[in-house]
Specification:
heterodimer, A: mainly beta, 6-stranded mixed sheet, 4-stranded antiparallel sheet, globular, B: mainly beta, 5-stranded antiparallel sheet
């Protein structure tokens, strides 16, 4: 596709359920980022993948959060036993490696935990 | 620890005025400083970016000023327009961690007609 694609665009889930959020980065982009944005707030870094290197997981808020990137392309962010505080927009971005490091963002997945 | 500090949190400017948003950082490993613009319901989009080897970059009405010694950089929007109303995020790339992008908390800009 032409841009970063995230699915679903909206997700409503019950407290305690697990959710999976998907990100399809731009083809050829080796870097992939996940951010969380609570209503009216800034971008909270979650995790960063770069090529075959070990991901930077330093932003994951708890062990309920995990992410993987298969084949250096598609990424899935999983939240287990969701809590109401997890309600937010989850944004994915990708970029090329190198000097031109513009990160392109998807539209995000709006997660609501009820 | 907040690695990129952004201010103000919100800003109201009259049409035609100058909007100024400031950011400061501590990590000397940061090597790339982009600004992103976000409209409601959309993902952030790159507006303008600068590297630390230059002190200023201008693209149309948007200018980044960079002060390496003070570890500060700012976005200036000249002749601000109502269509500029959005949330602006500064960011910094951590060259020491393979390129992770760290964002400021954002500034909500409202340009009044």
């Amino acid at each position: 596709g032409a841009g970063v694609s995230q699915s679903p665009s909206n997700k409503v889930t019950e407290k305690g359920k697990d959710v999976e959020l998907r990100c399809d980065p731009i083809s050829g982009h080796t870097a992939l980022y996940w951010y969380r944005q609570r209503l009216g707030q800034g971008l909270e870094f979650l995790i960063y993948f770069q090529g075959n290197s070990a991901p930077d997981k330093s932003g994951l808020p708890s062990d309920r959060f995990s992410a993987e990137r298969t084949g250096g392309s598609v990424s899935t962010l999983t939240i287990q036993r969701t809590q109401q505080e997890d309600s937010a927009v989850y944004l994915c971005a990708s970029s090329r490696q190198g000097l031109n490091t513009e990160a392109f963002f998807g539209q995000g997945t709006r997660l609501t935990v009820v | 620890q907040q690695q990129v500090k952004q201010s103000p949190q919100s800003l109201i400017v009259q049409k035609g005025g100058i909007s100024i948003i400031n950011c400061a950082y501590e990590n000397t490993a940061f090597d790339y400083f982009p600004w992103y613009q976000q409209f409601p319901g959309k993902g952030p989009a790159l507006l303008i970016a600068i590297r630390p080897d230059v002190s200023e970059k201008k693209e149309g009405r948007f200018t980044i000023s960079f002060n390496k010694s003070a570890k500060q950089f700012s976005l200036h929007i000249m002749d601000s327009q109502p269509g500029d109303s959005a949330t602006y995020f500064c960011a910094a790339r951590d060259g020491g961690s393979q390129g992770n992008l760290i964002f400021g908390k954002g500034t909500k800009l409202s340009v009044k007609p």
